[in-house]
Amino acid sequence: MPLIAATWSFARDGCAEAVKPLLAGGSALDAVCAVAGAAERDPRVDSVGYGGLPDATGRVTLDACVMVSPGKCGAVCAVARHLAATDLARMVMERTRHVMLAGSGADEFATALGMPECDLLAPEARAAWERWRIGDASVRQADPGRDFGVPLAPEVGERRFDHDTIGALALDASGSLAGACSTAGMAYKLAGRVGDSPIPGHGLYVDPEVGGAVATGVGEIVMGVCGTFLAVESMRRGASPQDAIAEVLGRIDHQFTLEAHQQVGLIVVTRDGRLSSGAIRPGFAVTVADGAGVRVEPPQFVLYPEWTGAAG
Ligand code: ASP
Questions:
Q1: Pairing of the two strands 275-279 and 301-302
Q2: Which of 46, 214, 218 to mutate to test the pocket of ligand 1 (most atoms within 8 A of CB)?
Q3: pLDDT digits over 88-105, tens only?
């Protein structure tokens, strides 16, 4: 039964490592933190942790969230001086009576915990930002960090966008669910912008009585419908995982005038290990790791399969 499902193929290495202790009886929370932490440390991933593309002023800020139940979650946003945003969110959950710490307070909390400080702006990310700043149109195309070298999974139709959160859900051998997500947010966002990823019910929601959901894509349109909360509530009312995803994407479609370049990807895992995934348009990919190995899959549901043009 233990399994991990994570957004995008860049979760492959992290899932391959994290699934081993999970299969040996490790906890779902450790597994999702390991998956997110691996992406944070990978300089090739231009949307998470070190290597993440900065905001419009050239500053990298990180948002992250962990959740095991409505009463047990932790988050940080606008972290500017510490890499391990997911571990920090976990510390907020485990060591404080709060849910979220923001900005300098989050960095100070990390420093007080003895977490190492670092410059989050990788040379490749700085170079991409400098090209963007002087109006190099190629930087705005579908894959603004394409020089960083993170491999795609073209065999499942994966495409890159200028924003990609690592989001992971795991179920362990004892039947516990956990979720984590971590992001540098949208490339070249306005300074101070925070998206859906660190907010319980928006980028991530886990209710052990039902299941969990995690989102990636344009945070503003996920936030408008409380996307992951809606997915879990839909399953609570009896929807199948796939119908729950279709309900969230349909609600987004109803509430917003979607543009053909916009993307949202969702993954849900039920408390009994059923998995589904979906996206607004083609290009999303899901990494799954379990006793049968690690594989990258296309989403099971795509709202607008004909929207195959450039994203960004
Ligand atoms: N959802 C993230 C945000 O809006 C970005 C992403 O997942 O691509 O910050």
A1: parallel
A2: 218
A3: 999 999 999 999 999 999
